[in-house]
Amino acid sequence: MSTNEHVDGARVLARAGWRIIPLLGLAYLVAFMDRANISFAAKTMNADLGFSATVYGIGGGVFFLSYALFEIPSNIILARVGARRWIARIMIMWGVIAAAMMFVRTPWQFYTMRFLLGLAEAGFFPGVIFYLSLWFPRAARGRAISRFYISGPLTRVVMGVVSIWLLNLNGVAGLTGWQWLFVGEGLPAVLVGVMVLVLLPERPEVVGWLNTSEKRWLTDQLARDAASAGHQHHTGHHLAALRQPIVLLLGLVGFLTGGAYYTFTLSEPQILAQATGWSAAHVGYAISLGGLAGAGGMLVTGWLSDRIGTRIPFLYASTALVMIAYMLFVVGGGRTTGLIGYTCFVAAWGSVTLSVWILCTDLVAPAQMAVGTAMVNTMSQIGAFVGPIMWGVAKDATGSFHLGFIGLAAAQAIALGFVAALARHAKKGVVAVPAG
Q: How many domains does the chain contain in total?
């Protein structure tokens, strides 16, 4: 009888999860906050600095342009130097730049700082997805990624409360509220970056908190997954991922759904205030509650998709529900319709992106994973660059968000077509996973 047969696999994965996921989740929380906090700063910052909706849209979107341009190079470097050092470098740099947003005075300074912030953060998210694929076998990966990914919606809980508090410091030490917002939410990333450098383990083979049998069991599970993926995909040079239909289809879904999502969130407080007539404080609390709903949706999707052993149905359903949310904003009809649309949005958006990323780790061969995840995220970030600019131009041209919401609903409808194509291609690869 082999030594591996005596290993409690669930215990090994639980131990790895507690060592890795909370730290990476904290890192993602501060990353998400630093890219999205301009939505809370927008009203007073735009008024103070004289920024139009178009200027704000360009500044909001240019972050995603630089992020997209440097995704693939960043992930190639991460694969070579190791996740611990590279993720720490990313976080420390973006924390300093995010805090320095407090010095912005002109549109070009705004564009430049947002571009530099995207450059600094490039590679963080796909790098983490790649890193988690080195630790968690496919049958447990949905739960692992969802537990990391819930930091995105949970950031909304934190940001909805903390941002209002920081904005209320307006005038303290001669700084405006939006300046306090940038510095107060930027510097924590530097501290978390140092924590990553000290605490994040590199690979299962080198940690001291798994014994030899446990390490062998985990590496055997990961090798079995790699062999399975290798039978279904060409496993040549890692840049071969750029030619894989699965990667391109996932990227197109990300371009449309991610672009629409970030366009919405960059104006979310303004949208909610307009739909409900609520004060800034009440809007902040609503966004916090929305974050809890999004986190719950992610956890359910991760758990169920592992348990059932399939991902595509969750991507279909959540993409359709987000489309319905945007359509409700198109229809309008007052506070009730707006709140129903918002509820649909916050409950489903996390399942869309989570399903895309779980599918990416299921279907892309390990040798191509670093570049494959970076390519999918690059295409998603290009969507997030284009969307806010078009949204801002439409708002300036029409004076309302109505035309912009028509565009968001159309993007989700087109995305559903690509999900159908993805489902057909996925049948040729590794779609079913061992039920967890």
A: 1
